[in-house]
């Protein structure tokens, strides 16, 4: 809808099945439509093969995607075909931070944005529980009240400060 409102023509919409690996029909459709850009709202496990097969067929559209594609596996699955891809993510991650080395040591693979965000969510909650327990055993209402007061928590992805609605007022999308 936002693209249409900005005057961009939507020339094709399609559906991708979970774990789909053959994108021949989609690639043919994209070729016929001569797409300049493709917004892919699916998962990285399908976006990588779609992108690789599109590039092998000579298509050069820019791939656009949301947080589900904010994963190093996109490059692993698509290889060099991932060039000209733009992913809007939610985590400004520093791969040199101790979190990433520790995650790789525990999981045996690199951390993705979801792992970093889950780490921050857990840290914020534990910090709220710690503050709620300062006067004794923490109760659910006290933890919730302390959670709402979170200001300047230094997470792996960014500083976290909640506004009146409970949103991180310091959050920024990362491309």
List low-confidence stretches. Answer: none
C-alpha geometry: elongated
> What is the first-to-last residue Cα distance?
21 Å
Strand composition percent = 5-15%
Q: How would a textbook summarize the main sheet?
A: 3 strands, parallel
How does the helix and strand content classify structurally? mainly alpha
Sketch the topology as an H/E string, one letter per element: HHEHEHEHHHEE
> Biggest sheet: strands side by side, in what order?
1-2-3
The amount of helix comes to 40-55%
Please count the helical segments.
7
Work out the number of β strands.
5
C-alpha Rg (nearest Å): 20 Å
Query: If you average the pLDDT, what whole number results?
Result: 89
């Amino acid at each position: 809808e936002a693209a249409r409102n900005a005057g961009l023509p939507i020339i094709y919409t399609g559906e991708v099945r979970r774990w789909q690996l053959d994108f021949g029909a989609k690639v043919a459709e994209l070729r016929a439509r001569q797409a300049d850009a493709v917004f892919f709202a699916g998962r990285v496990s399908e976006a990588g093969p779609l992108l690789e097969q599109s590039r092998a067929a000579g298509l050069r559209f820019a791939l656009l995607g949301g947080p589900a594609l904010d994963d190093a596996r996109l490059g692993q699955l698509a290889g060099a075909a991932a060039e000209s891809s733009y992913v809007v993510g939610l985590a400004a991650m520093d791969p040199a931070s101790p979190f990433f080395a520790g995650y790789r040591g525990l999981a045996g693979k690199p951390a993705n944005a979801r792992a970093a965000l889950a780490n921050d969510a857990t840290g914020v909650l534990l910090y709220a529980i710690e503050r709620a327990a300062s006067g004794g055993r923490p109760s659910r209402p006290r933890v919730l009240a302390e959670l709402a007061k979170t200001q300047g928590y230094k997470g792996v992805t960014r500083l976290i400060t909640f506004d009146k609605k409970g949103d991180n007022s310091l959050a920024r999308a990362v491309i």
